[in-house]
Amino acid sequence: MARTRGLARHPGLVVVVLLVVMAAIAWVPETRLAEKVATGLRAGIALAPGGASDATAAARSCPAGTTQAVSVPDPTSPQGHRQIVVHRPPGPDQADIPVLYLLHGYPGDPQSLIDGVSGLLDAQMCRTGRPFVVAAPDGEADGLDTEWGDDTAGRFDVESFVTEATIDATEGAHRRSRTLRAIGGFSMGGYGAAALALRHPQLYSQVASFGGYYRLDDPAGVFAGDGADYAPDRLVGAATAGQLRFFLVEGAQEDTALQVGSIRGEAERFAAILRRNDVPVGIAHPPGGHGADGWYPALGDCADFLTAGWTGRG
Question: DSSP per residue over 30-56, as a string?
């Protein structure tokens, strides 16, 4: 049986997303503040107040960002190219505007991902006063679970596409420093964000993983050998402390199966590894499971965390 570790595409998706957004907006500030205090105490990091309802109200006075899909050549893609969907805040692009590179789950695609989160993130940018670009690359490969890696058998080079072509196409002449780049993702994309940041710390300074896992889970056989070079829990070391910050989200009802075990408990397990290596980490456990209901309610906390890092307060 195929494992689904992302938002499945089906005719009812729009209804589901609308219901989730309504639920996120209805989540009372007191509940979110209590969750923030608890996670902040565990992580040793202060998370600023603010929530979906605050952001929704503030967004009424802020213009929405714009979304554009660009096609970039990739000879390892079955189509010969890959799409990057970029959501930009109003105004001209500048090198001092941060970028969040956002990776979809499996199955998934960049357009559906941006359609689901762009409005919510616009609201959070308005609330925090810190706009940022969101760029979602395509990690698909003929239905294979790519794990956002470069396939050792040569079927695809998704990691290289994210760390090279995607940055070039998104930033262009306005190249960012690593301190203004974050990488995040959902499910398989959450794993990919953690793995790519740890493998390329010269490119990114922050990670946001929603429903991710932090040990190797490779059903399509992308990686050779024992995969130690691709397992986030084996890549963290003393040097990571001065390079990266992590924000981990795991729904309270998470129960998604992996090849061995499940995603449940992965955030706390990985956070313990990060803390042992003095790596800053924040955690959120919203109500919900492995999907928008367990991820989107934490977007406010995520925006606060990233903004603190981008402004030097993290």
Answer: HHHHHHHHHHHHHHT-------HHHHH
